[in-house]
Amino acid sequence: MVFSALVRRLGLVLPVLVTGCFAGDAPEEPVAPCDVPTTPPALSRLSRAEYVRTVRAVLDPTLPDDVFRDLPFEPNVGGFSNGAGALNDEVLHVDRYYDVAERIATRIDVAAMTPEMVIDEYGERLFRRPLDDGERERLMAMSDPTDVLVTMLMSPGFSYHSSRADEWALASRLSYAITGGPPDAALLAAAASGRIDVEAQVRRLFATPAARDAMNRVVFEWLQLAALYDTWRDIEDFETEREVMVDEIEALVGRTVFDGPGTLEALLSESRDGRVGLLGTRAFLVRFARYDESNAVQRGKFIREQLLCQPINPASGVVAGMFRPVEGQVTTRKKYEMLVTEPACATCHRQMDSIGFAFEGFDHAGRPRTEDNGLPVDTTSTIVGAGDADGSFADAAALSAHLAKSEYVARCVARTMFRYTFRRFERPGDACYVDALGDEFVRKGGRFEDLFVSIATSDAFASEVAP
Amino acid sequence: MSIGRRRFLVGASGASLALPTLLSRPGHAQSTPPKRLVLFFTPCGVQQEQWFPTGGERDFVLGPTHAPLAPHREDLVLTKGIDLAVRTTSRGDSHHRGMAMVLTGREILPGDDTGSTGLAGGISVDQVIANAIGGATPFASYQFGVKTRWDGRVFDYASWAAAGRPKPSNDDPAAAFRDLFGEPSPRRRHVLDAVREELRRLRATLDGADRNKLDVHLASIESVQARTQRSCDPPAMPIAEDFGAIGRAQTDLLVRALACDLTRVATLQWSTGVSHQAFPWLGVNDSHHDTTHSPESIEDRTGKLLAIEHWYAEQFAYLLDQLEQVPEGEGTLLDHTLVVWFNELSFSAHGTTDMPFVLAGRCGGALETGRFLQFDRKKHNDLLVTVLNLMGQEVSTFGDPELCDGPLPL
Question: What is the complex's ipTM, to 2 decimals?
Answer without folding.
Answer: 0.89
